[in-house]
Amino acid sequence: MTEAVTIRGAGIVGLCVATELVARGVDVTLRDPAPEPGAHACSWWAGGMLAPFCEGFSAEEPVVRLGQEAADWWAAQGVEVIRRGSLVVTLERDRRELDQFARRTQGHQMVSGTDLAELEPYLADRHDRALFFADEAHINPRNALMHLRKRLQEAGARFEQSDAAPTGPVIDCRGLAAQDSLPDLRGVKGEMVVLRSLDVTLKRPVRLLHPRFPLYIVPRGDGVFMLGATQIESAERGRASARSVMELLSAAYALHPAFGEAEVMEIGADARPAFPDNLPRITRKGGTIHANGLFRHGFLLSPVVARMVAGLVTGDNETPEFLTHEDHG
Amino acid sequence: MPVFYETEITSRLMLGTAQYPSPAILAEAFHRSGAGIATVSVRREAGGERAGQAFWDMIAALGVHVLPNTAGCHSVREAVTTAQMARELFDTNWVKLEVIGHADTLQPDPFGLVEAARILTDDGFHVFPYCTEDLVLCERLVEAGCRVLMPWGAPIGTGLGLNNIYGLRSLRAHFPDVPLVIDAGLGLPSQAAHAMELGYDAVLLNTAVAKAGDPTMMAEGFARALEAGRLAYEADPMEPRDMAAPSTPVFGRAFT
Questions:
Q1: pLDDT digits 0-9 by tens, A38-86
Q2: What is the three-class DSSP state of B41?
Q3: CA-nearest residue of chain A to B27?
Q4: Strands A137-138, A49-50: parallel, antiparallel or unpaired by DSSP?
Q5: Which of A30, A83, A167, A324 is 20 to 30 A (C-alpha) from A263?
Q6: Under 8 Å CB-to-CB from B164, ≥6 apart: which residues?
Q7: What's the complex ipTM?
Q8: How many interface pairs between A and B have CB atoms less than 8 angstroms apart?
C-alpha cells in the first residue's frame, strides 16, 4: 500500500479521489494551479444532476449502473443531496421523442394530469405528460466542490498551488490539461446560463427533449436556475457563443414563457475532458495513475472512479472496471 | 460504384458525423457499414485556433474520404467563407454546399445555392450541393459547375423518407450522367433501398444512424439495404401489372 500520494488537479475527480484516499488513511497532497475550486475547473460549470437513468439515453451502460451510487456517496460526505427525482418533457410537436426516450431508458414512469400537477405545477400548465425518474437526484456542484475541499483540509490533506509535475507516487486527476500525457483526451465544449426568476418554481431538474436544442434546467433554490448545456466537439474554453446562449434561452422560454422575464446572472463555458468512448479511464503508467475523461459525468461518476483509484492505491482492487491496459503514451 | 469528380468511392453510403453518442460509436458505425465518405460540419462556434482538431483528427483516422459541409449557413457569404475555411482545414477542394433558406424546415435556399455554387466552382471547388428535387434548380446548379447533385428526400432530420418519388424519378431521368445522392430526410433502410431502386448513386445519412438506439447496427442495416436496392436496380425489375398473373397455368392441370 502506498502511504503518501500527490494528486494533480483539485477539480471534481481530484477532490473525490482525495476523499476516498484520506478515508483509507493515505497521506494526500493535492496540487492545482488555482488556489481553490473556481471558474478554471470544468466541474465549476456543471449542472450537478445525479441522473444515471436519463444519461442512459445516450451514454454507455456503465454510466447507468455505476452512476446509481453517486447520490449516496455525496450524501455520505455531508453534501446536501436533493432526492426529488427528475422530469423529462417535450413540446407538443415532438411528443414522440418522449416515447422514444421512455423506450431507451429505465427507472421512470409516465405521469400526466393531476400527478404531474402535483409534482411540478408550473409544468402542468403547459405539458400534459412527462417522464418521471423518481430515483434521480441533484446537488449544487459548487457547494459540493467547496465542501469536499474544506473537509479534506480538516482531515489534514495539503493543498499546493502549483502546475509543476510532482515527484513520487502521483495520481493525475486533471481535466483537459492531462492531454500532455493522454493524447486520446479531447475537449467537448459546453455552454451554460444561470437565470434568476421569481416567477417560476421547479422542485427538480427538468429536461426538455428537442430535436435541435435539447435543454436541462436545474433548480438551485432561491429562484436560481442553471440552464445547460451545449455539447460541441471543440476544446475551446471560456467563450460562450451568442448562438448557443440564444438556443438555451429559447428552449427555456419554450419550456415556460416566464423564463423570458428572468434575470441573466451568469453565462459560462468550458470544455469537458473526454475519451473517444466518452467513458472515464484509469491508466497506470510507471509511478503514475491517471484517472481522467469524466466527460459530462463528473459528479455522477467521480465517486465510483475515486473508489476504483483508491482500490488500486491500497492494493485492494488491482483491476477496477475503468482500468485500461492500452498504453496511450 | 459512384464516381464523384473523377474519384471512385467504394461504397454507396455516406455518413454524417454529428450527434453520435460518442466518437467511438461513430467510428464503429463506419467500420460496420463500410461507408466511403464522411461529411464533417465546420461549425464556426467550434472556435478558433483549431479547437475542434481532436475530433477532426478522429474523422481523418477513419480512412475514408472527407466531405466538409457548410451546415448551418444561411447566406451565400457565410457558406463561401465556411467552404474556404474547410478547404484549409481538411486539405480538400470537395465541399458539400448547404445554404439554408428556412430556419424551421432547413429547406435549401435555391437562389443562394446557385450563387454560392458558382462562386465556389470558379474558385476551384468541387461542389456537392444540398438541394431540393426541383428540376430547374438542378439544371442551374449543373450550369454553375456542379457535377454532383444532392437532392433531399425530406427535410433534414425528419426521417420521413422520399417525399416526392415522382420528382426524384424525373430528376434521375433528366440527369442520367450526373451522380445523384439522396441527402437528408431518410429514417429507414427501406427508404434507402427505394432510392437505389430509383437509380440513385448514393445516400447520405446522419440522424437516422446517429440517433438510432444502436447506431452501429442501424448503419449496417442501411448498408445492406443499399446493396439490395442497387442489385434490384441493376437487375431491371419487372414492371408492375394491374392484372393478377398466375405464374403457372391452371388451365388443364392434371391434378388438383
A1: 999 999 999 999 999 999 999 999 999 999 999 999 999 999 999 999 9
A2: strand
A3: A276
A4: antiparallel
A5: A83
A6: B133
A7: 0.85
A8: 60
